[in-house]
């Protein structure tokens, strides 16, 4: 079975972002509290976290607040128009080292995206007073088959 990690944190405010190294196949769930500018996805260590929105270069693959999924400044996919996240919705993300898939309130959105290469990390950014709660374990909805919480990589000397 693939692994995911759990690290609950909140992102809010004006231009914040964060990333945590991942191992295996992760699932992330976001609870949208205040809809501003935000994005979630995966990124390499080379991504410029100070330049939002992400998805402008080869170092990030993200779902943006408007429902578009961007990588290398190209729209790779888009959530259906009637499925744009609203305040209080839960967005689920899975990544299997090739393809990122999106879920809205536990329902698969069937809009996969791929293209990023190398070691990637979960990435979340917020701006314009957006508030997101991120769950890397203890999910609101059951993780898809083959996915579980993200495991932190550790070195033992």
UniProtKB/TrEMBL annotation:
Residues of the SPRY domain: 28-137
InterPro entries reported in the protein's UniProt record: B30.2/SPRY_sf, ConA-like_dom_sf, SPRY_dom, SPRYD7
Transmembrane segments: none
Gene3D superfamilies: 2.60.120.920
Domain of life: Eukaryota
PANTHER family (UniProt xref): C13ORF1 PROTEIN-RELATED, SPRY DOMAIN-CONTAINING PROTEIN 7
Protein name: SPRY domain containing 7b
């Amino acid at each position: 079975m693939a692994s995911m990690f759990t690290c609950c944190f909140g992102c809010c405010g004006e231009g914040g972002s964060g990333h945590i190294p991942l191992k295996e196949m992760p699932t992330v769930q976001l609870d949208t509290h205040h809809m501003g500018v935000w994005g979630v996805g995966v990124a390499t260590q080379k991504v410029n976290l100070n330049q939002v929105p992400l998805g402008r270069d080869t170092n990030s693959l993200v779902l943006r607040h408007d429902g578009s999924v961007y990588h290398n400044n190209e729209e790779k996919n888009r959530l259906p128009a009637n499925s744009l996240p609203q305040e209080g919705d839960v967005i689920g993300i899975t990544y299997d080292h090739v393809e990122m898939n999106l879920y809205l309130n536990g329902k698969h959105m069937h809009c996969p995206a791929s293209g990023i290469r190398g070691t990637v990390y979960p990435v979340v950014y917020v701006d314009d007073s957006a508030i997101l709660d991120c769950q890397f374990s203890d999910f609101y909805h059951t993780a898809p088959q083959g996915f579980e919480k993200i495991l932190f990589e550790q070195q033992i000397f």
